[in-house]
């Protein structure tokens, strides 16, 4: 039983890890370059991933309303994770210059790429729709809280502009549009669904290879105590606290699995771009992204294996 469960768990995480490793290899061999990674990332973020989310909701056989506990829990978990990491940063006396980058790196999960890929591997039927629901509610929270903590009291931050930018996020637009289409009970022509499926299929291979390639763009890692603390929070402490809380309130099965996979995923690659654009400690952010991405294969596998053994999934 233990071996079969381990093999089942590895079938969820290993394909994702291998695609990231492939990205590292292709970049190292110069088969792909910075321009390819930048262009493919824009394609994924603006086109293929929104299409994937749209189709997941429009074509879902289940009623979205039955998963409201998952939505509300995900919202609460993201807010609580931020507050917890913020407090830990103060306890550890992280310097003001690194505080914002530390908090963002420790609490912000890569939901749209790694988390979603894991969900699709684990739950081919439900993974996309449940992942889309988590994305819809958590992505705006991540963006706004990241801006706030990175700004470090900057009075020149325009919150109205930040709200507009969040509302224009292609993922948010796609999910909202899918909700409207589903609400009216409108069925899309089969030819559009087939075209969308092909386009959506580009998402995970391109995105995961891009993540791997981007890991090699940065200078050598500087894994000091602040970096390791952020990585430990991201990969171990927060996932365990969130999963235990979910189980405590009665969430089990696929919903629990999606929560575990989403919140145990590594730090989002977008955190580096945001830290750099806001003059925060982008070097620390890059190190946390790299180490959490490399380490998540082990930690996510362990978490899912334990949940499987416990019979909660």
Describe the protein's architecture and organization.
- The structure is a single chain.
- The chain is mostly helical and 313 residues long.
- The chain contains 14 helices and no strands.
- It has helices spanning 2-28, 34-58, 68-91, 96-107, 111-122, 127-151, 159-167, 170-183, 190-200, 203-215, 225-248, 253-263, 270-277, 282-310.
- The radius of gyration is 19 Å and the shape is globular.
- The relative contact order is 0.18.
- The mean pLDDT is 89.
Radius of gyration: 19 Å
Strand content: under 5%
Outline the biggest β-sheet: none
Helix-strand pattern? HHHHHHHHHHHHHH
Q: Please give the alpha-carbon distance between the first and last residues.
A: 15 Å
Uncertain spans, ≥5 residues at pLDDT below 50? none
Arithmetic mean pLDDT: 89
State the helicity in percent bands.
over 70%
How does the helix and strand content classify structurally?
mainly alpha
Report the principal-axis shape: globular
DSSP, total strands: 0
Q: Given the structure, what is the number of helices?
A: 14
Short description:
With 313 residues, the chain is mostly helical.
What is the strand and helix layout of this fold?
Layout: H1 2-28, H2 34-58, H3 68-91, H4 96-107, H5 111-122, H6 127-151, H7 159-167, H8 170-183, H9 190-200, H10 203-215, H11 225-248, H12 253-263, H13 270-277, H14 282-310
List keywords for this structure.
single chain, 313 residues
